[in-house]
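Late entry, evening session. Most of the bench is empty. Finally got around to the prediction I had been postponing all week. Sequence below, unchanged from the version circulated by S.P.
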Amino acid sequence: MIRVTRGVTTAVTLMALAAASPGLAQAAQPSPGAPTTSPGERDGSPRLPEGWRITGAGAERQLVWTADEAVPMGDARVEFRLGGRLLGFPVAQPDGRSFRLPLGDARLGGRTEQRIAGGDELRVTAGGRRLDADTPALSARVRPSAPAVRPEAPLPANPVDPGVPGGHRTVKGEYALKSVRLPGFPEPVEMRAAVVAPDPASVPGRRPVALFLHGRHGTCYKPGTDEETGDWPCPPGMKPVPSHQGYEKAQRLLASQGYVTLSISANGINGQDFRAEDGGAQARSSLVRLHLARWAEWAANGKDAPAVVRKSAAADLSRVLLVGHSRGGEGVNRAALDSLSAPPADQDGYRGPVRWKIRGNVLIGPTIFGQNPVPDVPSMTILPGCDGDVSDLQGQIYLDGTRGVGGGAALHSAVYMVGANHNFFNSEWTPGQAKAPAVDDFWTDEETPDAVCSPGTRTRLTAPQQQTAGATYIAAAARLFVGGDDRVRPLLDGSGRRAASAGPARVLTHAVGAGRTPAFLPGPSVTVSGGGRLCAQVDPDAARACLSPDEGGQSPHFASWETSPEPGRDSVAMTWTRPGAATAVRAARPVSLAGAESLALRVIVPPNSKGTELDVAVADGSGRRAKLGRVRVDGLPGSDRTASYWGRELRVPLSAAARAGLDLKRVSVLELTPRSASGRAWLVDAWGWRPGTPAVRPAPLPRVDFGRLTVDEGDSGVRTYRVPVRVSGQGSGQVRVFTPRPGGEGVESRLVTVRPGQRTVDIPVTVRGNTRFGWEVSHDAFVKAVRGAVVGSHHGGVTARNDDPMPKVRLTPVADDVAEGGALTWRVTLSEAADADIMGGVSFLPVTGGAELSTADLDPEWVRDTYGSVPEPARPLSRPEEEDAYAPFAVPAGETAVELRVPTLKDGVAEPVESLRARPFSYDGDWERVPGPEFTGTVRDAS
């Protein structure tokens, strides 16, 4: 395609590059045939990297990245970033290689152009993993790349093994009901499920229910080929990918133990969730609850139930376990929240009563884009150590994000499964087992094998091993959360026990909640002295960050969110070069450990490290000190492609403190003293621990949901609107509200207390009316729970819609008859200035007589800069290599004219007169092309 003059292209490229604020640009399907702007600049201004381009004009402007080969459809959100700043979430195109981010009202902040010129990178990431780099950049400096230590000895086996099949006979089948409409999705979504349940003849009474929800995967495939798409509904000749059939191993195990299980299909959401601001979480919640509502109806009156339901044991909807994989995990988290506190009706696809009770959630390699876990519903999160999709293991936030938010009785467990990938928990996503095309999501090849996760390494699990271990731990959660069997708790709560049925899988756990007493939670309420420092979990500043972005490394605890830096997320970082350099963590107020049996610490050490030893001591308010004991911990197996900076649970008995006469009701200092020669460690938190699983009684917490309001800007004056914020529920709590600053220069945050009876949070937005054309402008806001509150829809704002006509465009000659070496020049003039770039283009047509200008007649630097290369052999301007290529123009906002220049080359060869013929076009208010009158340009031989 063809470029315009340097002044114009600088404005086009830079003004289109970035979104105004994190998360501001929302994905929407592009129009076909959008015009294209090429990536380079000739005057030293920033260039787009290889693989990037700008397409379209006006409302159709898009930032596009194209991969060398197809990127499999996955659960982690693909993100465009500039350095560490989130630009937005692009839409995958049908070819599987291209991703387009609608820019809409995107504007650069004052410092962004400097950042690009200074080397800040455009990046494509998904789950923290770079997609646009040959070498993975998650943990580029985690060394050594291969595990340097022998595996730890196997943990002791737990006396009760939940992976042993029960004695009940089972039945299986599927049902398909009428499809449903969900808000924001134009196409209906299927109501289909695979059921595996106890035979009613083998088990008396009503049985608990386990509902499975798969994640975001390909939706349609062509049998007998490798062709798979994300379309919905499926095109002719293609079949839906049966993702819902992929959990049968776990379903059979649970059914044999007396559970009615159903695994529901969500292809209709996967094929449309790019339209949803929350990535489809609310839609998935609606689908889960629609199925539960049907089962509640069938439990009351089964005569109209599908055949498989009628031949299954009766369901007890007061005992429900939800199991969600990847985006399905975020969906069941939202369903649990929505079952306790109704979402806004205009966002929800289910409007009926709640006739079920969620006893617990199992989340497998889950996403959590909203970082809004449900605090008062027990959960177990499986973190696959070789996850190549949600590779930042952001599901850790289902634990860490609940601290201090709810009542603290619900157990929240993290299960780190060394050697497990993302896909193989679902057999329909597993090569050799799936009906549709399937891949190993962990990225590796023969030239760059991974010492931890490549198939065949001693740490990598096979698909059957992974599926067996997954089923075992799902059954453990069911037995604890639904069955109330405390004997399996040591498998989940960091007590250091293993399930024999999980086979060779190395599974490590830690937990929060379950009545633990908060002791030392790093943040503003603690001070750190000695050899450690309070560090920020999410911060681009290496001096403040727990893990410096410059040194590499990835921790699930430090998973990024909508903004960086993010206040309110801290840990304690310790570095030492000799034994004995103690770190003291002092609480602002003494904490009570009375009644606790042990002090439980979650401590991170570097991957592959061995033998880190720490002495643990506490002191009370009077200064009396007691050494509790010494802990020893090894790093997880890790490589440059894994997120292995993960907290190990370390417990020390409090008996020594009692013997020393400490006042355990007034503990004020935690002291950690390294005994290793050198090393690093991070304290995530410390708790008073006691055995047991307390009863969970969800508190009626206030719920906060953000929405979006779209308004006309008006012709004059200043109007104040407010972000639609809905507060429901009871009680008082605290949330943190984030609002991007104008121009995209950072994000402001403030703590907001939600009081009883309050029904909104005031977030004013000023919209200034005018009579000049401009793009619509989005003023975004997002929210996170801090204490005593929950969040549903975390992202919203006010969008000011342009209501003024586009200026008329006129093109007049400045120099349309020149000698070789001169520049053909035309002036593009607007009828009036606009508040946005006004764009159009010039298409070149075959000349009606004489010789036509070719690429050989033009400045080769200009040709290379505009076409991307110099065509060989040369081509007439009316016959570009790319169909419908043209020279775009852009009149920058606030200006009324710009020049379009085509520089020619003085070649010293005698030639006849050559010419070009062209037709300009602009766009109307609906972004349809409006052609202008033809014009010509003539170049005469200079010799």
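Two things to note before I forget:
The longest helix spans residues 281-300.
The chain is about 10% helix and 35% strand.
Will write this up properly tomorrow.
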